[in-house]
Amino acid sequence: MQISETSKRILADLLRSQTGQDFPPNRRWRVGTALSGLCREHGIANLDSLIAKLGMSQRSAQAHTLVEALLNNETYFFRDRAMFDLLAGRVLPDLAEARASTKSVRIWSVGCSSGQEALSLAMLFAEQESRWAGWTIDIVGTDVSTSVVEAARSACYTQFQIQRGLAVGQMVKWFEETPQGWRAKEKLRRMVRFEKHNLLDPPPNPAHFDIVLCRNVLLYFDDVTRARAFERLAAVLAPDGWLLLGAGETSLGQSDRIVPDRDLRGFHRLATSARAQRTADLPRRAAG
């Protein structure tokens, strides 16, 4: 389905105002597919009429519905398995040593979609039970989409979703089949919480994190907005923390406060100057 230039401007303005995301030409190819369901729901035959009707007011519930339909919520369990292997084998052991006195780990999953990334993290801790016994593991997942945050809070997945990224043994060990689908067991659910949140807004509690995953989020921003996002991420990352970006994302040339880790591909750290500033700004974590 084709849309007019006017409709493209309406969609671009809506996305930018509600999410901060850009709407370049290479993102417009899926508009027809994304909005076809709304066309059927409202009995409207063409996209221009739909966009004109729902996008009249940027703050209306209808406009929000339009934006939600445009968001890319693609996710699955243990997406980019190599990254999770590095987390389990390299990062978490270092973190266990660094946080031995507080026994507290705080992780932020930005753009969490329906929660598979956050629950994958919870499984890493649950599968190393003896190492993390007595620790407080706080994993917060956030997304700009109301509908996917609600889905994440349910922690319930279809047969198709549960099979994407999970071995049969993991599925049976950490999920239970219910009439509504496969639901994460309590051991995983008590480690995670989900909130509607925009990365460009003030951070969620506790406002500083040992690990931040912001994968396949920054690629939807223009250069100016991406720079703002890096500032937000640098401001919440612990001085010795890790930031994980998507395969097509980097901090090189984008931020002077965050730099790629020399040893772990896809992992980023605070630059030396930013690390010193964060150390000076943060209160001591004696209470965890």
TrEMBL record:
Pfam families named in the record: CheR (PF01739)
UniProt xrefs under SUPFAM superfamilies: Chemotaxis receptor methyltransferase CheR, N-terminal domain, S-adenosyl-L-methionine-dependent methyltransferases
Protein name, entry field: CheR-type methyltransferase domain-containing protein
CheR-type methyltransferase domain location: 1-267
InterPro entries: Bact_Chemotaxis_MeTrfase, CheR_C, CheR_MeTrfase, SAM-dependent_MTases_sf
GO MF term list: S-adenosylmethionine-dependent methyltransferase activity
